[in-house]
Amino acid sequence: MEYKMIVLDLDGTLTNSQKIITEPTKEALFDIQKKGYKVVLASGRPTHGIVHLAHELRLEEYGGYILSFNGSCITDCRTGKVVYEKVIPAEWIGQIYDKSVEYGTGIMTYEGDALISSLDPDCYIQKEARVCRLKLKPVEDFKGYVNFTPNKCVLTGEPDHLAQVEKKMQRHFNGLMSIYRSEPYFIEIVPQNIDKAHSLLKLLSSLGLTADEMICCGDGYNDISMIECAGLGVAMENAQDVVKEVADYITKSNDEDGVLHVIKKYFK
Asked: Cα–Cα distance between 87 and 152 in angstroms, integer?
C-alpha cells in the first residue's frame, strides 16, 4: 500500500516534551510535502493553538490541514477556510456547567483566541492556556457568558476523580454528545459522534482518498479512533497502554523523533 497522507497528533506525538518540533522531523515533513503527500495536524487543541505549528511546517504552502477540537473543525491551511465543522448547541451549555459544579471539576471552552473558564481556574486550565497560546478569561457567570455554540467544552480535574466523572457524564448525556478523556485530567465534550476518525473520514472523502492510504500517529485516548481506522495506525512509545494495544505499529517516543522514524520507514 502506498500511503498518501500522514495525520499527526501534537502533544506527546509530533512535539517533544518541550512542545517543540525538532529540526530533523521538520525537514522530513517538508520533504514528503514537496513530493505531494498530505500532512494533517489533528489535535484536541483549538485552531488558534495549532496555527503556529502549521506555519512552522508550511502547511499553507503545501496544502495541509488542521483538524482541531478533536474533530469538531477542519481548516484548509492553504485557503484558511473551514471545510467541516460541528458545534455544541447553546442550550446544552447550562447542563454541562451544572454537572461540572455537581461533580467538582473545572470547566472551560474556547472563543477565538481566548480560553473561557469559571472563576479560579485550576492548574490544568492554566496549562491549556499557556500551551495553546490563548488569553485566559475567567468569567463570573459561565452559563450566561457562553451564549454561543462552541466546538467543545472541557472538564478538568485529578485523573482518578475524572475517571468516575467521565462515566457519569456519558450516562447523563447518552446520545446527545460525545464524551471521552483526551488526557487523564481532561474530559472532552464535543458534538455527538465527533472524534478524530469521524472527521478524517469526511476529509478523506473530499480529497478522493481512502482510510487505507492514511497513516495516523498518536499517544492519547482521543487518538484511538483514528489509529483504529487508519491504513497504518501508529502509537508512540510514550503512548497510553490502551493506545498501543490498538496500534499496528509502535514507533519511538516523542522525545526520540518517533514521527521521523515513521516517515523514514513508510515514505520511501
From this structure: 7
Cell 518517533 locates to 258
Phi first, then psi: give them for residue 62, nearest 5 degrees. Answer: -100, -5
8 A C-beta contact, residue 235 and residue 244: yes
H or E stretch at 182: strand 177-183
Q: Which CATH class is domain 90-191?
A: alpha beta
Could you tell me the pTM of the whole model? 0.91
Confidence of residue 1 (pLDDT cuts 50, 70, 90): confident
How do beta strands 177-183 and 135-139 pair? unpaired
Does the pLDDT at position 179 exceed 90? Answer: yes
Q: CA-to-CA distance for 235 and 218, rounded, in angstroms?
A: 5
Q: Contact, 140 vs 119, CB < 8 A?
A: yes
Give the homologous superfamily in CATH for domain 5-86+194-266. HAD superfamily/HAD-like (3.40.50.1000)
